[in-house]
Write a structure and sequence with these properties.
Length: about 325
């Protein structure tokens, strides 16, 4: 992903570039993310009880609404603005989260290449020999985990407000305060383990996949280092991210949106979901998640590459 002049850009500038690009991508795709969250938590509602003609009572599960129906129902019942419920927390999250996971990726990759592949300096690590996939994966796992530990409270607030809990909070600042007061500081880091797991996976699927696919496309000579290359790599990265991260993402959303004591841990959440709803529950919201992640990756990478290009010149 780094090119010939990427190391001329300071770490601080890289962090700002990554956070800005991610905020733009988040703003464009936020309604899809809200729909995804609503679909993921839909299984939390109790089954509908129906009486048969013989007098027996049957428990019937509500039908899972699709993407269009979810968005339509949300707008009809709660208004268009609810599609952007939690946007400020989402932008806060991206500025904290993406700046670390993306902004530090190239630098972390070079450090690991120096350590594991014996590169004597940054220039050699970037250009004289290819950096192995293992080094890239390790760099993606590292920055993904660090980003979650740093930005987890913003993710908790974003999920709560997207799930329809914004009626409890007048603002995102009040949400931070209320969660800390009623659930303790630990409440702001609720779901950290499943979120670390999810974001380590998604960071590798998104950033490392984009990095490798882009390099291979450039080596093949099919594309030059321009928009078509970036677009193709972004679509592949978005698909890989959705496929690999959806199960952990659903568990993370359920756990972070749960009441105190409802679930013991992320693992307990996953086991109870499997028992009560079956394996398919781990891919609830797959369509909006796929639509959103592919769209998000396209906007992110095209924006990031263009910002990077203009920053150098």
């Amino acid at each position: 992903m780094a090119d010939e002049k990427s190391e001329e850009i300071s770490i601080g500038t890289k962090l700002l570039m990554a956070g800005t690009a991610a905020c733009i991508a988040d703003f464009v795709t936020f309604p899809l993310d809200t729909a995804k969250v609503r679909m993921q938590i839909s299984g939390e509602s109790r089954a509908i009880l129906m009486s048969s003609s013989e007098g027996s009572v049957l428990a019937v599960k509500a039908v899972q609404p699709g993407l269009i129906q979810t968005i339509t129902t949300l707008v009809k019942n709660e208004g268009f603005r609810k599609l952007y419920g939690g946007l400020s927390a989402g932008l806060q999250r991206q500025m904290c989260f993406a700046s670390v996971r993306l902004g530090l990726y190239d630098s972390t990759k070079i450090i690991y290449a120096d350590f594991f592949q014996g590169k004597s300096n940054k220039e050699q690590a970037l250009h004289d020999a290819p950096i192995g996939a293992g080094v890239r994966i390790l760099a993606g796992m590292t920055t993904g985990a660090l980003a979650v530990l740093f930005a987890q409270p913003t993710d908790v607030v974003k999920v709560r407000m997207q799930a329809g809990n914004s009626l409890k909070y007048a603002s995102t600042l009040q949400a931070y305060k209320n969660i800390a007061v009623h659930e303790g500081v630990k409440g702001l880091w609720r779901g950290t383990f499943p979120n670390v797991t999810r974001n380590v996976i998604i960071n590798v699927a998104e950033i490392v996949c984009y990095d490798i696919v882009k390099d291979e496309l450039l080596k093949s000579g099919i594309f030059s280092n321009g928009v078509p290359c970036h677009l193709t790599a972004a679509i592949v990265a978005g698909f890989c991210a959705t496929l690999t991260a959806s199960p952990v993402d659903v568990v993370k959303t359920r756990y972070m949106n749960s009441k105190p004591g409802e679930y013991k841990s992320g693992i307990d959440t996953a086991l109870r979901m499997l028992h009560n709803e079956g394996p398919s529950c781990f891919y609830k919201g797959f369509v909006p998640s796929f639509t959103r992640l592919v769209s998000w990756n396209i906007v992110l990478w095209l924006t990031y590459e263009q910002i990077q290009l203009h920053t150098k010149h």
